[in-house]
Design a protein that fits this description.
This protein is α/β, with parallel strands linked by helices. It has a single domain (about 5-115), classed as Response regulator (Rossmann fold). The chain is about 45% helix and about 20% strand.
Amino acid sequence: MDSDVLVVDDSAAIRKILQRVLRQTGMAIRTIYEAGDGQQALEVLESNSVHLILTDINMPKMDGLQLLAALKAGAIWRNIPVVMITTEGGEAKVAEAVRLGAAGYVRKPFTADQIKEKLVGILEPALPL
């Protein structure tokens, strides 16, 4: 099944890099939506169905942790896996993301292999060994 992905980061350059990296993984991805912050992400989700969200933690207006909390609090989006993509070095924010229900995290800078390794079990959990 082809997956639709939402990439949320306040840096347009990082969003483009993540799109390219997602395409390089060779995974079955149909559409990649973009948002510049958590508020824009919720707007995108109002009119689009996605199978995965990749979000930065540090963003203006609504950060990644606030977005994650909003997603997990509602019935509509609570089952969408969320992977945090972050420069955050401290364990406190990563631990908070896990506590809120993040499916995982990847630290910036990242490689295509790191993204693929993190996403294979999330997007394609039924891969044969």
